[in-house]
Design brief:
Largest sheet of chain B: 8 strands, mixed
Low-confidence stretches of chain B: none
Strand content of chain A: under 5%
Distance between the termini of chain A: 93 Å
Mean pLDDT of chain A: 86
Radius of gyration of chain A: 35 Å
Strand order of the largest sheet of chain B: 1-2-4-3-5-6-9-10
Number of helices of chain B: 15
Structural class of chain B: alpha/beta
Oligomer: heterodimer
Radius of gyration of chain B: 22 Å
Largest interface: A-B, 44 and 45 residues
Mean pLDDT of chain B: 93
Order of helices and strands of chain B: HEEEHEHEHEHHHHHHHEEEHHEHH
Helix content of chain B: 40-55%
Shape of chain A: flat
Low-confidence stretches of chain A: none
Number of helices of chain A: 3
Chain lengths: ~120, ~375
Amino acid sequence: MSSNGEFNPFDPTGMFTDMRNASMDAWAKAMVQFVNTDEYAKASGQMLDSWLSNSAPMRKVMEATMKQTLANLSLPSRDDVSALSERLTNIEMRLDDMEALLEKYIKLNTKAQRGRQAKTPSQEK
Amino acid sequence: MSNGQDASTRMPTLFDFCDDWQKRTEGVKTFNRLIHTDAKIGQTPKQLIWTLNKARLYRYTPVVPPSERKRIPVLIVFAIMNRPQVIDLRPGHSFVEYMVNKGYDMYLLDWGVPGPEDKSMKFDDYVLEYLPRVVRKLKSVSESDEFTILGWCLGALISTMYAALRPDDGLKNLLLLTAPLDFSDKTAGGFVRWASAEEFDADKLVDALGNVPGEMIDAGAKMLKPVENYVGNYVALWDRIDNPKVVEAWHAMNTWVRDLIPMAGETYRQLVNDLFKENKLMEGTLKLRGEPVKLNHLTANVLNVIAEGDHITPPCQSLRVLDLIGSQDKELLRVRGGHIGIMAGSGAEKNTWPHIEGWLAARSD
Protein backbone atom coordinates (compact mmCIF):
# COMPACT_ATOMS: atom_id res chain seq x y z
CA MET A 1 0.00 0.00 0.00
CA SER A 2 1.07 3.57 -0.27
CA SER A 3 -0.21 4.48 3.15
CA ASN A 4 3.36 4.93 4.35
CA GLY A 5 3.82 7.65 1.76
CA GLU A 6 6.11 5.59 -0.50
CA PHE A 7 5.35 4.78 -4.11
CA ASN A 8 4.32 1.17 -4.60
CA PRO A 9 3.89 0.01 -8.21
CA PHE A 10 1.99 -3.12 -7.07
CA ASP A 11 -0.81 -1.18 -5.44
CA PRO A 12 -2.98 0.58 -8.03
CA THR A 13 -5.74 1.23 -5.43
CA GLY A 14 -3.25 2.99 -3.20
CA MET A 15 -2.16 5.20 -6.09
CA PHE A 16 -5.79 6.01 -6.82
CA THR A 17 -6.34 6.90 -3.14
CA ASP A 18 -3.37 9.28 -3.20
CA MET A 19 -4.67 10.94 -6.36
CA ARG A 20 -8.13 11.20 -4.88
CA ASN A 21 -6.88 12.77 -1.64
CA ALA A 22 -4.83 15.28 -3.57
CA SER A 23 -7.75 16.41 -5.71
CA MET A 24 -10.50 16.25 -3.06
CA ASP A 25 -9.35 19.32 -1.14
CA ALA A 26 -9.10 21.43 -4.27
CA TRP A 27 -12.50 20.24 -5.47
CA ALA A 28 -14.08 20.96 -2.07
CA LYS A 29 -12.62 24.48 -1.91
CA ALA A 30 -13.73 25.24 -5.46
CA MET A 31 -17.28 24.10 -4.72
CA VAL A 32 -17.47 26.13 -1.50
CA GLN A 33 -16.35 29.20 -3.44
CA PHE A 34 -18.89 28.44 -6.16
CA VAL A 35 -21.90 28.09 -3.83
CA ASN A 36 -20.87 31.31 -2.08
CA THR A 37 -21.21 33.45 -5.20
CA ASP A 38 -24.09 35.81 -5.96
CA GLU A 39 -24.59 33.98 -9.25
CA TYR A 40 -25.25 30.71 -7.44
CA ALA A 41 -27.59 32.48 -4.99
CA LYS A 42 -29.52 34.00 -7.89
CA ALA A 43 -29.64 30.77 -9.87
CA SER A 44 -30.85 28.68 -6.93
CA GLY A 45 -33.45 31.33 -6.07
CA GLN A 46 -34.69 31.33 -9.67
CA MET A 47 -34.81 27.53 -9.78
CA LEU A 48 -36.87 27.39 -6.61
CA ASP A 49 -39.13 30.15 -7.86
CA SER A 50 -39.79 28.47 -11.19
CA TRP A 51 -40.43 25.12 -9.48
CA LEU A 52 -42.96 26.77 -7.15
CA SER A 53 -44.61 28.66 -10.03
CA ASN A 54 -44.79 25.64 -12.31
CA SER A 55 -46.12 23.30 -9.67
CA ALA A 56 -48.66 25.79 -8.27
CA PRO A 57 -51.52 25.08 -10.73
CA MET A 58 -51.21 21.32 -10.22
CA ARG A 59 -51.06 21.76 -6.46
CA LYS A 60 -54.16 23.94 -6.47
CA VAL A 61 -56.10 21.42 -8.54
CA MET A 62 -55.01 18.60 -6.24
CA GLU A 63 -55.99 20.54 -3.13
CA ALA A 64 -59.40 21.50 -4.53
CA THR A 65 -60.09 17.95 -5.69
CA MET A 66 -59.05 16.47 -2.36
CA LYS A 67 -61.15 18.98 -0.44
CA GLN A 68 -64.19 18.21 -2.58
CA THR A 69 -63.65 14.46 -2.32
CA LEU A 70 -63.34 14.59 1.46
CA ALA A 71 -66.41 16.81 1.70
CA ASN A 72 -68.39 14.37 -0.45
CA LEU A 73 -67.32 11.54 1.83
CA SER A 74 -68.30 13.61 4.89
CA LEU A 75 -64.70 13.58 6.10
CA PRO A 76 -62.84 16.56 7.56
CA SER A 77 -60.27 18.33 5.39
CA ARG A 78 -56.70 19.13 6.42
CA ASP A 79 -57.81 22.68 7.28
CA ASP A 80 -60.54 21.32 9.56
CA VAL A 81 -58.06 19.07 11.36
CA SER A 82 -55.55 21.93 11.65
CA ALA A 83 -58.19 24.21 13.16
CA LEU A 84 -59.11 21.49 15.63
CA SER A 85 -55.46 20.99 16.51
CA GLU A 86 -55.06 24.72 17.22
CA ARG A 87 -58.05 24.57 19.54
CA LEU A 88 -56.56 21.56 21.31
CA THR A 89 -53.23 23.34 21.80
CA ASN A 90 -55.13 26.30 23.20
CA ILE A 91 -56.92 24.02 25.66
CA GLU A 92 -53.59 22.39 26.55
CA MET A 93 -52.17 25.82 27.35
CA ARG A 94 -55.10 26.67 29.61
CA LEU A 95 -54.81 23.29 31.34
CA ASP A 96 -51.09 23.90 31.80
CA ASP A 97 -51.80 27.30 33.38
CA MET A 98 -54.42 25.74 35.67
CA GLU A 99 -52.06 22.95 36.67
CA ALA A 100 -49.37 25.48 37.51
CA LEU A 101 -51.80 27.47 39.65
CA LEU A 102 -52.94 24.32 41.40
CA GLU A 103 -49.35 23.29 42.08
CA LYS A 104 -48.65 26.72 43.51
CA TYR A 105 -51.64 26.57 45.88
CA ILE A 106 -50.83 23.02 46.98
CA LYS A 107 -47.29 24.12 47.80
CA LEU A 108 -48.54 27.17 49.71
CA ASN A 109 -51.06 25.03 51.58
CA THR A 110 -48.43 22.42 52.49
CA LYS A 111 -46.15 25.19 53.72
CA ALA A 112 -48.93 26.72 55.83
CA GLN A 113 -49.84 23.30 57.30
CA ARG A 114 -46.21 22.67 58.25
CA GLY A 115 -46.09 26.09 59.86
CA ARG A 116 -49.20 25.32 61.90
CA GLN A 117 -47.82 21.91 62.93
CA ALA A 118 -44.56 23.49 64.02
CA LYS A 119 -46.43 26.06 66.15
CA THR A 120 -48.77 23.57 67.85
CA PRO A 121 -46.25 21.87 70.26
CA SER A 122 -44.97 25.22 71.62
CA GLN A 123 -48.55 26.43 72.14
CA GLU A 124 -49.36 23.25 74.12
CA LYS A 125 -46.49 23.96 76.51
CA MET B 1 4.12 -11.50 6.13
CA SER B 2 4.88 -15.13 5.41
CA ASN B 3 8.29 -14.45 3.85
CA GLY B 4 9.18 -11.85 6.47
CA GLN B 5 9.04 -8.94 4.01
CA ASP B 6 6.90 -5.84 4.49
CA ALA B 7 3.66 -6.39 2.55
CA SER B 8 3.77 -2.83 1.21
CA THR B 9 7.05 -3.31 -0.70
CA ARG B 10 7.01 -6.88 -1.92
CA MET B 11 5.10 -8.33 -4.85
CA PRO B 12 1.59 -9.23 -3.60
CA THR B 13 0.65 -12.90 -3.54
CA LEU B 14 -2.69 -14.53 -4.27
CA PHE B 15 -3.24 -14.74 -0.49
CA ASP B 16 -2.84 -10.98 -0.20
CA PHE B 17 -5.45 -10.42 -2.89
CA CYS B 18 -7.85 -12.84 -1.15
CA ASP B 19 -7.24 -11.18 2.18
CA ASP B 20 -7.78 -7.75 0.67
CA TRP B 21 -10.91 -8.90 -1.12
CA GLN B 22 -12.36 -10.29 2.12
CA LYS B 23 -11.63 -7.04 3.97
CA ARG B 24 -13.31 -5.00 1.28
CA THR B 25 -16.35 -7.28 1.27
CA GLU B 26 -16.66 -6.85 5.03
CA GLY B 27 -16.20 -3.12 4.55
CA VAL B 28 -19.05 -2.96 2.03
CA LYS B 29 -21.32 -4.83 4.45
CA THR B 30 -20.45 -2.47 7.31
CA PHE B 31 -20.86 0.57 5.06
CA ASN B 32 -24.27 -0.61 3.95
CA ARG B 33 -25.34 -1.23 7.54
CA LEU B 34 -24.21 2.21 8.67
CA ILE B 35 -26.02 3.97 5.84
CA HIS B 36 -29.32 2.15 6.29
CA THR B 37 -29.66 1.55 10.01
CA ASP B 38 -29.99 3.77 13.05
CA ALA B 39 -27.61 3.75 16.00
CA LYS B 40 -28.95 4.07 19.52
CA ILE B 41 -28.60 7.73 20.43
CA GLY B 42 -29.93 9.81 23.31
CA GLN B 43 -29.47 7.06 25.88
CA THR B 44 -28.83 9.07 29.05
CA PRO B 45 -31.78 8.26 31.38
CA LYS B 46 -34.41 10.99 31.50
CA GLN B 47 -38.01 11.52 32.52
CA LEU B 48 -40.74 13.32 30.65
CA ILE B 49 -42.06 16.03 32.96
CA TRP B 50 -44.09 18.34 30.72
CA THR B 51 -45.70 18.44 27.30
CA LEU B 52 -47.45 21.05 25.20
CA ASN B 53 -48.50 20.30 21.63
CA LYS B 54 -45.35 18.68 20.16
CA ALA B 55 -42.95 20.14 22.71
CA ARG B 56 -41.55 17.92 25.44
CA LEU B 57 -39.56 18.82 28.54
CA TYR B 58 -37.30 16.14 29.95
CA ARG B 59 -35.35 16.00 33.17
CA TYR B 60 -32.17 13.92 33.12
CA THR B 61 -32.00 11.56 36.07
CA PRO B 62 -29.44 12.96 38.52
CA VAL B 63 -26.59 10.63 39.46
CA VAL B 64 -24.97 12.85 42.09
CA PRO B 65 -26.38 13.02 45.66
CA PRO B 66 -28.56 16.13 46.28
CA SER B 67 -26.01 17.65 48.66
CA GLU B 68 -23.35 17.64 45.93
CA ARG B 69 -25.57 18.95 43.15
CA LYS B 70 -25.29 22.45 41.71
CA ARG B 71 -28.06 24.75 42.90
CA ILE B 72 -28.99 26.24 39.52
CA PRO B 73 -30.69 23.92 37.00
CA VAL B 74 -29.72 24.01 33.33
CA LEU B 75 -32.28 24.08 30.53
CA ILE B 76 -31.08 23.08 27.07
CA VAL B 77 -32.98 24.80 24.27
CA PHE B 78 -32.09 23.16 21.01
CA ALA B 79 -32.70 24.32 17.44
CA ILE B 80 -36.13 23.92 15.87
CA MET B 81 -35.06 22.20 12.66
CA ASN B 82 -33.05 19.30 14.13
CA ARG B 83 -33.59 16.73 16.84
CA PRO B 84 -31.73 17.48 20.07
CA GLN B 85 -30.05 14.06 20.47
CA VAL B 86 -26.74 15.45 19.26
CA ILE B 87 -26.11 16.59 22.83
CA ASP B 88 -26.35 12.95 23.89
CA LEU B 89 -24.97 10.89 21.02
CA ARG B 90 -23.27 7.97 22.73
CA PRO B 91 -22.64 6.86 26.30
CA GLY B 92 -19.19 8.11 27.24
CA HIS B 93 -19.35 10.78 24.53
CA SER B 94 -22.37 12.74 25.65
CA PHE B 95 -22.43 16.37 26.79
CA VAL B 96 -25.53 15.79 28.89
CA GLU B 97 -24.01 12.74 30.58
CA TYR B 98 -20.87 14.78 31.29
CA MET B 99 -22.86 17.58 32.91
CA VAL B 100 -25.09 15.21 34.91
CA ASN B 101 -21.96 13.51 36.24
CA LYS B 102 -20.64 16.94 37.28
CA GLY B 103 -23.72 17.45 39.44
CA TYR B 104 -25.93 19.62 37.24
CA ASP B 105 -29.68 19.26 37.24
CA MET B 106 -30.16 19.07 33.46
CA TYR B 107 -33.38 19.66 31.52
CA LEU B 108 -33.95 19.32 27.80
CA LEU B 109 -36.59 21.09 25.77
CA ASP B 110 -37.38 19.05 22.65
CA TRP B 111 -39.56 21.16 20.34
CA GLY B 112 -40.79 18.04 18.57
CA VAL B 113 -41.76 17.65 14.93
CA PRO B 114 -44.17 20.29 13.60
CA GLY B 115 -47.04 18.91 11.57
CA PRO B 116 -49.08 20.71 8.90
CA GLU B 117 -51.31 21.99 11.70
CA ASP B 118 -48.35 23.90 13.18
CA LYS B 119 -47.53 25.88 10.04
CA SER B 120 -48.75 29.12 11.65
CA MET B 121 -46.34 28.86 14.57
CA LYS B 122 -43.96 31.81 14.80
CA PHE B 123 -41.02 32.82 16.95
CA ASP B 124 -43.65 34.69 18.98
CA ASP B 125 -45.13 31.34 20.01
CA TYR B 126 -41.82 29.68 20.82
CA VAL B 127 -40.56 32.64 22.84
CA LEU B 128 -43.69 33.88 24.57
CA GLU B 129 -46.02 30.89 24.82
CA TYR B 130 -43.82 27.81 25.10
CA LEU B 131 -40.59 28.92 26.76
CA PRO B 132 -42.19 30.79 29.71
CA ARG B 133 -44.30 27.70 30.46
CA VAL B 134 -41.26 25.47 30.22
CA VAL B 135 -39.43 27.77 32.64
CA ARG B 136 -42.37 27.73 35.03
CA LYS B 137 -42.37 23.93 35.06
CA LEU B 138 -38.60 23.77 35.45
CA LYS B 139 -38.72 26.12 38.43
CA SER B 140 -41.49 24.10 40.02
CA VAL B 141 -39.71 20.77 39.59
CA SER B 142 -36.24 22.00 40.51
CA GLU B 143 -37.55 24.23 43.33
CA SER B 144 -35.12 26.89 42.21
CA ASP B 145 -36.12 30.43 41.28
CA GLU B 146 -32.98 30.85 39.20
CA PHE B 147 -31.92 28.84 36.18
CA THR B 148 -29.46 28.64 33.30
CA ILE B 149 -30.40 28.38 29.63
CA LEU B 150 -28.08 26.76 27.12
CA GLY B 151 -29.27 27.63 23.63
CA TRP B 152 -27.77 26.10 20.53
CA CYS B 153 -28.12 27.49 16.98
CA LEU B 154 -31.71 28.68 16.46
CA GLY B 155 -32.31 27.59 20.06
CA ALA B 156 -29.79 30.27 21.03
CA LEU B 157 -31.72 32.81 18.94
CA ILE B 158 -34.96 31.87 20.71
CA SER B 159 -33.20 31.95 24.11
CA THR B 160 -31.74 35.41 23.39
CA MET B 161 -35.16 36.78 22.45
CA TYR B 162 -36.65 35.26 25.60
CA ALA B 163 -33.85 36.60 27.81
CA ALA B 164 -34.36 40.09 26.39
CA LEU B 165 -38.14 39.99 26.76
CA ARG B 166 -38.34 38.34 30.18
CA PRO B 167 -35.26 39.54 32.10
CA ASP B 168 -37.02 39.14 35.46
CA ASP B 169 -37.99 35.49 35.05
CA GLY B 170 -34.94 34.31 37.01
CA LEU B 171 -32.55 33.60 34.16
CA LYS B 172 -29.13 33.77 35.80
CA ASN B 173 -26.86 32.41 33.09
CA LEU B 174 -27.27 32.31 29.34
CA LEU B 175 -25.00 30.09 27.28
CA LEU B 176 -25.12 30.80 23.57
CA LEU B 177 -23.67 28.16 21.28
CA THR B 178 -23.13 29.14 17.64
CA ALA B 179 -25.93 31.67 17.88
CA PRO B 180 -27.14 33.15 14.56
CA LEU B 181 -28.12 36.67 15.66
CA ASP B 182 -26.47 39.28 13.45
CA PHE B 183 -27.16 39.18 9.72
CA SER B 184 -25.70 42.53 8.75
CA ASP B 185 -23.06 40.89 6.55
CA LYS B 186 -25.06 39.45 3.68
CA THR B 187 -22.01 37.78 2.18
CA ALA B 188 -21.14 35.75 5.30
CA GLY B 189 -22.46 32.23 5.23
CA GLY B 190 -24.40 30.60 2.44
CA PHE B 191 -27.85 30.74 4.02
CA VAL B 192 -27.94 34.51 4.40
CA ARG B 193 -26.42 35.09 0.99
CA TRP B 194 -28.91 32.75 -0.70
CA ALA B 195 -31.91 34.03 1.22
CA SER B 196 -30.95 37.66 0.65
CA ALA B 197 -30.98 37.26 -3.12
CA GLU B 198 -33.93 39.07 -4.70
CA GLU B 199 -34.88 35.89 -6.51
CA PHE B 200 -35.43 34.01 -3.25
CA ASP B 201 -39.05 34.39 -2.20
CA ALA B 202 -39.71 32.91 1.26
CA ASP B 203 -43.34 34.03 1.13
CA LYS B 204 -43.98 32.04 -2.01
CA LEU B 205 -42.27 29.00 -0.55
CA VAL B 206 -44.24 29.07 2.70
CA ASP B 207 -47.54 29.86 0.96
CA ALA B 208 -47.01 26.87 -1.31
CA LEU B 209 -45.67 24.29 1.12
CA GLY B 210 -46.94 25.31 4.56
CA ASN B 211 -44.03 23.96 6.56
CA VAL B 212 -40.57 23.91 5.01
CA PRO B 213 -39.64 20.24 4.52
CA GLY B 214 -36.71 18.86 6.48
CA GLU B 215 -35.22 17.52 3.26
CA MET B 216 -35.10 21.03 1.83
CA ILE B 217 -33.39 22.43 4.93
CA ASP B 218 -30.99 19.51 4.96
CA ALA B 219 -30.12 19.97 1.28
CA GLY B 220 -29.47 23.66 1.93
CA ALA B 221 -27.18 22.87 4.86
CA LYS B 222 -25.32 20.23 2.87
CA MET B 223 -24.87 22.53 -0.13
CA LEU B 224 -22.87 24.90 2.05
CA LYS B 225 -20.05 22.34 1.80
CA PRO B 226 -21.22 20.05 -0.98
CA VAL B 227 -18.10 17.97 -1.54
CA GLU B 228 -17.50 17.29 2.16
CA ASN B 229 -21.14 16.41 2.82
CA TYR B 230 -22.03 14.44 -0.30
CA VAL B 231 -18.68 12.78 -1.00
CA GLY B 232 -15.97 13.40 1.60
CA ASN B 233 -18.05 12.21 4.51
CA TYR B 234 -18.49 8.76 2.94
CA VAL B 235 -14.97 8.56 1.57
CA ALA B 236 -13.57 9.30 5.04
CA LEU B 237 -15.74 6.54 6.49
CA TRP B 238 -14.64 4.06 3.84
CA ASP B 239 -10.99 4.79 4.51
CA ARG B 240 -11.42 3.91 8.19
CA ILE B 241 -14.18 1.32 7.91
CA ASP B 242 -12.14 -1.26 9.87
CA ASN B 243 -11.77 1.04 12.87
CA PRO B 244 -14.67 0.24 15.26
CA LYS B 245 -14.35 3.53 17.18
CA VAL B 246 -14.61 5.60 14.03
CA VAL B 247 -17.44 3.46 12.71
CA GLU B 248 -19.43 3.78 15.94
CA ALA B 249 -19.00 7.56 16.09
CA TRP B 250 -19.90 7.97 12.42
CA HIS B 251 -22.99 5.79 12.79
CA ALA B 252 -24.28 7.81 15.75
CA MET B 253 -23.71 11.11 13.97
CA ASN B 254 -25.26 9.85 10.74
CA THR B 255 -28.32 8.65 12.64
CA TRP B 256 -28.77 12.15 14.03
CA VAL B 257 -28.15 13.82 10.66
CA ARG B 258 -30.68 11.58 8.87
CA ASP B 259 -33.45 12.41 11.33
CA LEU B 260 -34.88 15.37 9.42
CA ILE B 261 -37.71 17.53 10.64
CA PRO B 262 -39.60 20.34 8.92
CA MET B 263 -39.65 23.93 10.11
CA ALA B 264 -42.95 25.65 10.86
CA GLY B 265 -43.76 27.82 7.84
CA GLU B 266 -44.39 31.12 9.60
CA THR B 267 -41.21 30.73 11.65
CA TYR B 268 -39.26 30.24 8.43
CA ARG B 269 -40.91 33.32 6.92
CA GLN B 270 -39.89 35.37 9.98
CA LEU B 271 -36.38 33.95 9.94
CA VAL B 272 -35.79 34.89 6.32
CA ASN B 273 -37.72 38.15 6.05
CA ASP B 274 -37.28 39.73 9.49
CA LEU B 275 -33.91 38.34 10.48
CA PHE B 276 -31.85 37.30 7.44
CA LYS B 277 -33.03 40.15 5.22
CA GLU B 278 -33.83 42.97 7.65
CA ASN B 279 -31.66 42.01 10.63
CA LYS B 280 -34.39 43.26 12.96
CA LEU B 281 -33.02 41.74 16.18
CA MET B 282 -29.74 43.62 15.93
CA GLU B 283 -31.42 46.77 14.63
CA GLY B 284 -33.73 46.76 17.66
CA THR B 285 -36.85 46.76 15.50
CA LEU B 286 -38.02 43.20 16.12
CA LYS B 287 -41.36 42.83 17.88
CA LEU B 288 -42.87 39.62 19.19
CA ARG B 289 -46.58 39.81 20.03
CA GLY B 290 -46.18 43.57 19.79
CA GLU B 291 -43.40 43.67 22.40
CA PRO B 292 -40.13 45.17 21.17
CA VAL B 293 -37.14 42.87 21.67
CA LYS B 294 -34.45 45.11 23.16
CA LEU B 295 -31.12 43.37 23.61
CA ASN B 296 -30.00 45.86 26.26
CA HIS B 297 -32.74 44.43 28.52
CA LEU B 298 -30.82 41.14 28.60
CA THR B 299 -28.97 41.18 31.92
CA ALA B 300 -28.12 37.53 32.60
CA ASN B 301 -24.49 36.37 32.71
CA VAL B 302 -23.56 35.39 29.16
CA LEU B 303 -21.05 32.96 27.72
CA ASN B 304 -21.02 33.27 23.94
CA VAL B 305 -19.40 30.22 22.31
CA ILE B 306 -18.29 30.66 18.73
CA ALA B 307 -17.01 27.96 16.40
CA GLU B 308 -14.12 29.30 14.33
CA GLY B 309 -14.82 26.94 11.44
CA ASP B 310 -18.60 27.27 11.47
CA HIS B 311 -20.02 27.42 7.94
CA ILE B 312 -23.66 27.38 9.09
CA THR B 313 -23.38 30.23 11.61
CA PRO B 314 -20.22 32.12 10.66
CA PRO B 315 -18.54 33.75 13.70
CA CYS B 316 -19.52 37.26 12.57
CA GLN B 317 -23.18 36.38 13.12
CA SER B 318 -22.60 35.81 16.85
CA LEU B 319 -20.00 38.42 17.75
CA ARG B 320 -21.75 41.79 17.95
CA VAL B 321 -24.44 40.66 20.39
CA LEU B 322 -22.02 41.06 23.30
CA ASP B 323 -21.79 44.82 22.58
CA LEU B 324 -25.55 45.24 22.62
CA ILE B 325 -26.69 43.26 25.66
CA GLY B 326 -27.00 44.84 29.07
CA SER B 327 -25.14 42.08 30.97
CA GLN B 328 -22.18 43.02 33.16
CA ASP B 329 -20.73 39.50 33.19
CA LYS B 330 -20.17 38.45 29.58
CA GLU B 331 -17.50 36.31 27.99
CA LEU B 332 -16.61 35.22 24.50
CA LEU B 333 -15.20 31.74 23.89
CA ARG B 334 -13.74 30.92 20.51
CA VAL B 335 -13.40 27.21 19.83
CA ARG B 336 -11.70 25.52 16.91
CA GLY B 337 -14.20 23.39 15.03
CA GLY B 338 -17.45 23.47 13.14
CA HIS B 339 -21.08 24.11 13.97
CA ILE B 340 -21.70 20.67 15.44
CA GLY B 341 -18.11 19.56 15.99
CA ILE B 342 -17.49 22.00 18.86
CA MET B 343 -20.02 20.11 21.00
CA ALA B 344 -20.13 16.64 19.49
CA GLY B 345 -16.70 16.26 17.90
CA SER B 346 -13.78 14.34 19.30
CA GLY B 347 -12.18 17.51 20.72
CA ALA B 348 -15.32 18.70 22.51
CA GLU B 349 -14.69 16.60 25.61
CA LYS B 350 -11.28 18.16 26.07
CA ASN B 351 -12.02 21.75 25.08
CA THR B 352 -15.60 22.99 24.93
CA TRP B 353 -17.29 20.95 27.66
CA PRO B 354 -14.73 21.65 30.43
CA HIS B 355 -14.75 25.36 29.62
CA ILE B 356 -18.56 25.53 29.69
CA GLU B 357 -18.64 23.51 32.90
CA GLY B 358 -16.00 25.71 34.52
CA TRP B 359 -17.82 28.90 33.56
CA LEU B 360 -21.12 27.52 34.84
CA ALA B 361 -19.67 26.09 38.04
CA ALA B 362 -18.54 29.56 39.08
CA ARG B 363 -22.08 30.85 38.54
CA SER B 364 -24.25 27.96 39.72
CA ASP B 365 -24.10 28.15 43.53
